[in-house]
Amino acid sequence: MALHTGHTPLCHHLHHIGKEPSPFCIHCPGMEESVPHFLLDCHHYHHQRHMMTNTLGHRASSLSFLLLDPEANTHLTRYVNATGCFHQMFGEVPLPHKPPD
After folding, report:
1. What DSSP element (H or E) covers 89?
2. Helices and strands, number each (H, E), in the chain
3. The model's pTM
4. Cβ count within 10 A of residue 17
């Protein structure tokens, strides 16, 4: 799962590589289905995002925090799995392993 590079099974990337006719989100007319849109804005995933926000607080609205901070990894993976967006390509994305102390 390469959210930080944008190489994802979202319309924006799939359109770029010729696998999807449109880069736009099927749930949000006129909005490209990009990583930022999927993680922060798409109304279709409001419930899943709300669960992540309840755990991470205001940091869940920061794209850089979600993509780069190790503290967000497990919560981000749960969000991705809860949306079902990547199931066709990846199946259930395994939760990251916590490094030993």
Report:
1. helix 87-90
2. 6, 0
3. 0.88
4. 8
Residues 6+ apart with CB under 8 A from 97: none
Interatomic CA distance for residues 101 and 95, integer angstroms: 18
Q: What is the tens place of the pLDDT at every residue in 10-50? A: 999 999 999 999 999 999 999 999 999 999 999 999 999 99
Sequence-separated (6 or more) residues with CB below 8 Å from residue 24: 11, 30, 31, 32, 33
Residue 52 makes CB contacts below 8 A (sequence gap 6+) with: 60, 75, 76, 78, 79
Measured CA to CA, the distance from residue 83 to residue 75 in angstroms comes to: 12
How far is residue 62's CA from residue 17's CA, in Å, rounded to a whole number? 27
